[in-house]
Fold each of these.
Amino acid sequence: MKLDPFEALGVEPAFSLDIAVLEQRHRDLSRALHPDRHASAGAAERRMALGRAIEVNEAFRILKDPIRRAEALLARRGVASGEGKEPPASPALLMEVMERREALAELRHSKDAAALQGLIVEVQQSEQSAQAALGAEFTAESADPAQILKLVAQLRYYRRFLDEAATIADDLL
Amino acid sequence: MLLDIFDPKAPPQAVGIDLGTTNSIVAHVRDGRAVPLTTCDGTPLLPSVVHYGAEGSVQVGRTALAYATREPERTIASVKRFMGRASGDVETTRLGAYKFVPGEAAVVRFDLGKLTPSAVEVSAEILKSLKQSALDQLHQVGGAVITVPAYFDDAQRQATRDAGRLAGLEVLRLLNEPTAAALAYGLEKQQNGLFAVYDLGGGTFDVTILLLEDGVFQVKSTGGDSALGGDDMDREIAERMLAAMGATTPELRTAEVVSIALEAARRAKHALSDASEVSLELPRKGGGDVTFALTRADFDAWVQPLLERTGKACRRALRDAGIEASALSGVILVGGSTRVPRVRSYVNELFGVEPLGDIDPDLVVAYGAAIQADLLARQSDDVLLLDVLPLSLGIETMGGGVDKILPRNTGIPAGAKATFTTYADNQTGFDLHVVQGERELASDCRSLARFKLSGIPPLPAGFARLEVSFNVDENNLLSVKAVELTTGITQSVEVKPSYGLTDDEVEQMLIDALDHGESDFELRRLRDAQVEATRILLATDKAFASDADLLEQAERVRIEQALSALRGAASSATQASLIEGAISALDDATHDWAGRRMNRAIQSAIAGKNLGSVEQSVAHAAGVEAHLAKHGESR
């Protein structure tokens, strides 16, 4: 039995979500379910509240993350997702990623914080346009799961790159 | 003279405790305001120092501090630094006067000859003293909220909770110190917005970014260094003093000499908060005195590297929260070390805002803890604290790496599952190593628990499926469960991290500590059961008032029977087990109903606020704007 994050938070399943609305819903549900609200209740109720609060937090975490949100939407459509199911990257994307990786490796050595920040912003922009494309694909009349999986894979490349860049940026802080 | 009239029927008061590295404080809420209670020293601040006399006496606070130079190795200060630490940890080998029981034990023990108390036991002595002070003034104490640095890992949290239990306190909650400080400020000032809490205590540094919005205190990110604080400033000075005193080699740095230097360093640091220069006489090796002078500029330069370490943690916390420093409405200062002028100016430079410090930075955490204790005890709905996991939790992988199961800054309570498989044919056991931290290698992270899941049926490699689930509760305490799901065989192991004490161990230590052992312990268990019964009876009444319509007739009859049985047991039983049995019977009877009530609560939270309440909250928000506009300039 897998958690449906859209159901757990009571929001319409869609890729394009208003994060502010999501945050508000999370707060409202936390008000009802947080263990502190049930601190004086019997053990069964406390356990139940804890379990539900964990579910709500997990659902919130999934929906805030574009990759996991896309996977949850795919799961609702009965499409298996995950790294193994995604098509291999296109040569163009591979080229782009390789070039940026080289740039990142150079910046790691030169310790140029400003240039690093510039590179991060550039990749974040690519990430955002991939997300926009994903949003459009999900709402399209004839949504193509293969195309969706391809975009998810693309997001994953950007995510990994940004995580790595953040670790390097951390040392330069 | 006003007489404090003791009403024996009054409910026991919940207290908040700041168990600090340097000082500890107990506070409670009186007439809606947090106030400190006087400790055995006659002041709100109790030095977190415990002296173990050779003849078996135990003293806490200023009396203990008086022994610091005479019997430094028997006078334990800054014990918080050793909480949850193993004897091999770096922390135990830094400049200090203590001897430790040698070996690679999971729990570090101070070597005092016959006595070898652990950090948990030393902390429990401080808590016992605070509890006694609270009892003297409040007559009854009904549970405590104890604060911990946000950056404390699971081991340090478990150790703190164990110390509370060992002191005979019902630990209602472990609360993060910055969250406590924000609570104290937020409720007093009625502010909304994003805040940073910069908490530099005696031995720990924390930074937390929180969003305050209409009674919800939501932690966005947290970071810090659990081994950085005012003590390090003292060490910076003490190192130079030791050189001036001629104590240049490790052999010359006896416990006594080190302790004299540390004490003088502390005095110099305090003096420099007001004066720009200070000079002290120090004993020189081989007799005579040496004059040691230092200026504030010297001191500022020496502590700069320490401040830069805090700056890095702050920038990282801002980044993790996804905000720029300019988005902050304010910065709250916590901890005695923020009295150092250079710390204040550094924080100002770092965040670009004048930090708030109008609540005493030594007391603000205890105030927040008292407020949270009061809110919990009253079951108030006004305020909700949403905290995060401070450090990532994971499992060691085959190559010695870490598979992160819950990343840092995940909202708590939190849960996650991961599936593993066997790597060899016919493998029947599986070793799991649970670690916490951000480093890539498991050996660089804090080891929380190792356990073996055995009895896996022999299968080809990769066939067995092992599901590991992590649960982190509202106290940020972890429990791990591993289930092996293959040919229908399920095995489950409940682990408790290896440094923690088991419930039985705590019970035994409590029995040993009480004068009359078993009988006192039974009596206490009975009282605890009575308190618990009262609490559950109240909660059930409250549930009846709001959700009786969700009950079926037969169910209602069953619950009412269980209720009256519990009432009877609570008022007449002489054995705790009878009350405990009645509580669990009521629990069973209300189980399904609780589920329906939970669904109703969820539905009504999702159904959202009606138009009226939305307008109200808009009006409220406008009120806050107006309030800020009016008071903004004066900040």
Note: Chain A has a mean pLDDT of 90.
Amino acid sequence: MTNKQVANVKEALKGVSSEMTLMLGGFGLCGIPENAISELVVMGVKDLTCISNNAGVDDFGLGLLLQKHQIKKMVASYVGENDEFERQMLSGELEVELIPQGTLAERCRAAQAGFPAIYTPAGYGTEVAEGKETREFNGKMYVLERAFKADFSFVKAWKGDAAGNLIFKGTARNFNPNMCGAATITVAEVEELVPVGTLDPNQIHIPGIFVQRIFEGKNYEKRIEKRTVRQKTELC
Amino acid sequence: MLDKTGIAKRIAKEVKNGYYVNLGIGIPTLVANFVREDIDVEFQSENGILGMGPFPFDGEEDADLINAGKQTITALEGASYFDSATSFSMIRGKHVDLTILGAMEVSENGDIANWKIPGYMVKGMGGAMDLVASAENIIVAMMHTNKKGESKLLKRCSLPLTGVGCVKKIVTNLAVLEVTKDGFKLLERAPGIAVETIQQATEGHLIIEGQIPEMEL
């Protein structure tokens, strides 16, 4: 077994420097690598290009990096929950590439899987396809989208072991598995690091080969963005 | 005239037994509440769940279980979780039977705009571009006019497009319409709404053939 375990978040983020391209898992605030984001704030690295489905909220998630103006460019599919993001974007301080969510996932997956690019129907005929190669297959038009190139990918899983094997929980899975092995170095933070041999190989979502560094995260806040409940009397 | 709940009720009648359905944010989310109990349907949310259930009871929320609108949800028996690439394989691969989403504008040839108002509002397209580019069966749920009273059913969309020639059906507070190659075909009127009212609120070409029945809700 190759031991991927590192002692803490500091060691896990060794080598991250300004102007790098980073992938960060999560959907909204669900399944985000909280420990890695906090450490990026502490490190103070700047001019980052961040690839992530969303940009957090004003005071959590990637919003923490935005507050400190550490992000130069954001690649995302939906950024509607963050006022500071919208302000920086409309004022031109922040460069933004908005791309369809499925395209974002597939550009990660292509990088993971060794494909240089993929064809997708998403965005054809819209400004997203401007300047991109298009091609017809079976009477339908598709847009060529290139695999991402990133220096680090930060993912968050529920459980993992020192071999780098990962198991995700609920919808906190989202982009995390697609970003594993999609950057030069993949750093996984897990809620619980269990002894090697205790995870059932049948149940592993991401095999350790896609992960270079793993550590047990601390103090997960797991903030809920839109707490929505029903009353006991309601039927549906 | 229908309210948002009324629009959701009417759309719920389009949901057939055995369907996998993706619901967008806003009015579409309400549709789940009005699907008849004898109809088996599984709701897909593109952030990675099939078999999405209702909102949790107070105190039972799970931060690791949300829908695409970031609301806390529950999972029904038989549900499954998956990653984002798998989720969009379901959508792009046409495994999802029905997509219901909101729009700012729809044109008479089925173009849809719902993600950006240049210089003013930039939220992003999320999964909407993938959904409209692939789904065979797309229903748009929206108000017939915007807050200024201007028609949202246009000859051509003025806002940046989300997809081209993809919308098949539209349910508004005034009417049910089908997008045909000749324009918006009026299928049903909302209760108490005259054809003339719908005509006035529709900028794109409106096709009116014979008597137009009132919607059944």
Note: Residues 101-113 of chain A form the longest helix (13 residues).
